[in-house]
Design brief:
By secondary structure, the chain is of the alpha+beta class. It contains 3 helices and 2 strands, in the order αααββ. The protein has one domain. α1 packs across α3.
Amino acid sequence: MSDSGVVRSRSPRRGAARWREICEEYERFIGTQAEFCRLHGITGGSLRYWRLKQEAAFVEVAAPETVAWDVELVFGDGTVLRLRKS
């Protein structure tokens, strides 16, 4: 309870699976981001955060089949992923 006597309720915690559903719903939504957020009881900042997180989680990588390739990804924590095709 705040000094003014108003009780503020917290938003329910949503897991990654629920946010994935919300982001998918938003992609199909016809209207503004503000309208969508108001209807779902979420903030615009939270929606933007989870949409960016979803986009970053799945990156499609394709290479021509006729070319040999080496790919090396170095992550911020020092992890190195090397992919080779000869």
